[in-house]
Write a structure and sequence with these properties.
Elements: H1 7-17, H2 24-35, H3 40-45, H4 53-67, H5 72-76, E1 78-81, E2 84-87, H6 100-111, E3 117-122, H7 128-136, E4 140-146, H8 149-162, E5 167-171, E6 183-188, E7 193-194, E8 214-215, H9 216-219, H10 221-233, E9 234-243, H11 249-258, E10 262-268, E11 274-281
Parallel strand pairs: 3-4, 3-6, 4-5, 6-9, 7-8
Antiparallel strand pairs: 1-2, 9-11, 10-11
Helix pairs in contact: 1-2, 2-4, 6-7
């Protein structure tokens, strides 16, 4: 007779299976909490509880996906960014903690402005950056754009569930939806991995949309495009903030300088890697 599986037993079994993950136990807990529609604290308190056969089968199926390398947010359909719960699908990038620095630097500019600002979040994906900004200030009108209809559908679901009314979603490539001198701030986390560097990326990237990750010219093509278009679309006194690769800081600063920007500054992330560069049009 087979003994029933308790929560503690299931977590132990699945953790042992996830040998390739450096966060095996955490992965197992997040996935099981998602299946049971609860949280990790509940799992700890109820470790000896037995769950239904249907729940066990659903959980094991999701663990098999994780064994294959599928990122946890794609398995559970959600993740957290800036303490906001976001819906995530394979149509969008999984928001990284490093991108919170882009939000923080943008908010710093907004808080120093006495007037309401017009902001464009380019390549919004899940809407993570736009929603994080909206959650912290009412002193902004945010237009979140993406060339992907599928990505914008995910962003709309997140905007609707979080109910922020100062975000407008637009389809379009980078700054094409905007007129000259129409924006106060441009923020973007564009594709910045060169095609020739694809073999250097982590396993999770294999499951993410390639158009949101890879680009030509050693990862600089889309960044250079935004910089050039931004010089026309920003009002005088406006700012552009760009996330980029840790080895691209010098190239980004040079591109900004050639396009007429000033007050160019690159901020390092928590790993002390050059990550976000901001610049001013005056």
């Amino acid at each position: 007779m087979r003994l029933p599986s308790t929560i503690a037993m299931l977590l132990k079994q699945s953790t042992d299976l996830l040998t390739k993950s450096t966060t095996a136990r955490l992965d197992a807990e997040i996935i099981l909490a998602s299946v049971l529609k609860t949280n990790r604290t509940w799992l700890y308190i109820n470790g000896n509880s037995v769950i239904s056969a249907e729940e066990i089968e659903s959980y094991k199926k999701k663990i098999r996906e994780r064994v294959k390398g599928v990122p946890v947010p794609y398995i559970t359909g959600n993740c957290e960014f800036w303490s906001l719960p976001l819906i995530i699908t394979p149509d969008v990038l999984i928001p990284r903690p490093e991108t919170e620095l882009l939000v923080d630097m943008t908010l710093d500019i907004i808080r120093r402005s006495p007037s309401r600002l017009s902001i464009a979040d380019l390549g919004t994906g899940s809407g993570a950056v736009a929603l994080a900004i909206a959650s912290e200030t009412v002193n902004a009108r945010i237009a979140a754009t993406d060339i992907s209809f599928a990505a914008l559908q995910v962003a709309k679901r997140n905007v609707d569930q979080l109910n922020y009314n100062n975000i407008m979603l637009l389809v379009g490539s980078w700054l094409k939806p905007f007129g000259d001198k129409s924006l106060d701030i441009i923020v973007a986390n564009p594709p910045y991995i060169g095609f020739e560097e694809s073999h250097l990326t982590d396993d999770a990237i294999a499951f993410e949309p390639t158009t949101a990750l890879f680009t030509k010219n050693n990862g600089m093509e889309e960044i250079d495009c935004i910089i050039a278009q931004g010089a026309k679309c920003l009002k005088l006194g406006g700012w552009v903030l760009l996330e980029h690769g840790f080895q691209q800081g010098l190239k980004v600063r040079s591109s900004l300088e050639k396009s007429g920007y000033s007050q160019i500054h690159t901020q390092r992330d928590l790993n002390q890697c050059e990550r976000i560069t901001r610049a001013y049009i005056g």
